[in-house]
Design a protein that fits this description.
The protein has 196 residues and is mostly helical. The protein is built from 11 helices and no strands. The protein is elongated, with a radius of gyration of 20 Å.
Length: 196
Amino acid sequence: MISTAGELLAALEALPHAARLRFTAVTAHRLAARDELRPLLARLDALGAYERRLGALAALAAGDTAYLLARLGDLDPVVRRYALRCAHRLPVAAADRSFDLAVEAAYTDAPAVARADLARLLRDGRRSALAERLVRRARVEYGDRDAALLLAGCTRNSPPGCCPRSRASSRTRTGASWPDGTRRRCSTTPSANSRR
């Protein structure tokens, strides 16, 4: 029975890609059932990119939500995609305060591509309250483009000063223009773009 990262890597070495994925998932399920998955994940995370990706796959297969939520802003796109897939699977009711904290932490200092992924996560997951909290901060720290991406996840009654000024972002998800009052409210908060 495999229980260490070295044993897992040795067992995967001779397998083709699809078989490696399947073997990793089965091993993760077995280790999670015995509460022995976390040491394996910690060891894989300390190794190279390939091993970190295996760890993210194992966490997804075993349903280790906490491990993956901590990697929502990961610089490795494969690890981040596994984390996003996990977050997409969470029902809105299950996405509690820890989900919000994980997304906010991931958004901080994340590269633009990761921020765009997180904005889509909030939009698709109907997490409008969190999107509305982040949109103002995104506009100030990163500019109108990032705020516009988050705005797609906000409700029509988003707070004053959070809307970007760009023309492309003045439309809602349905294509309708924002009301004039909303445009006036948007102009009260300076964006990162206007300070450059």
